[in-house]
Design brief:
With 153 residues, the protein is of the alpha+beta class. Helix content is 28%, strand content 22%. Helix 2 runs antiparallel to helix 4. It is globular, with a radius of gyration of 14 Å. The relative contact order is 0.20. Bound molecules: zinc ion. The site of zinc ion (ZN) has 5 residues, from strand 4.
Length: 153
């Protein structure tokens, strides 16, 4: 199936300049950010409906209790105008087309033996994103398991 998303190199042309084309997405299930409840996030309008569909699917697959336990309700950020870690290219977060989950238990350099989101009980979470064409660096490269993005590598 053809991906609806640009490559990372094509992200600017597709999503616009960093900080533009944002919409507020009402979250299909409650999340927390820094321990505080949130009900919506700022995200690029091009991938907002897709993120909503993935989150709706996740809400269907997991109980509120399980979402909390697995970290699926722990939001770690979307828009952040910064370069990729250790690089010069812009992070996909600069285009507000990447979302982080539970960063404390899925640290950037951790592989699947340590990352919480790499465990088998999170499989349906990743399938929900992958069904929408989103990419997991954890699933593809075994690092940054907190991260999912609507851009191809
Ligand atoms: Zn990220």
């Amino acid at each position: 199936m053809a991906s609806p998303w640009p490559t990372q190199a094509g992200a600017r042309a597709f999503y616009g300049a960093p900080g533009t084309n944002h919409v507020l997405l009402q979250l299909p299930y409650p999340m927390t950010y820094d321990g505080k409840p949130i009900s919506r996030i700022s995200i690029n309008e091009k991938c907002a409906r897709s993120a909503e569909r993935a989150l709706l699917q996740i809400a269907k697959e997991y109980s509120a209790e399980d979402r909390k336990k697995l970290g699926l309700s722990i939001y770690g950020g979307c828009f952040n105008n910064r370069p990729m870690r250790g690089g010069k290219q812009l992070s996909m977060h600069a285009y507000a087309c990447a979302i982080d989950f539970d960063p404390v238990r899925n640290q950037l350099k951790w592989g699947k033996e340590k990352a919480r989101l790499a465990k088998p009980d999170c499989e349906a979470f990743w399938r929900a994103w992958e069904a929408e064409g989103w990419i997991s660096l954890g699933r593809l490269r075994n690092f940054d398991w907190m991260h999912v993005q609507a851009a191809r590598l």
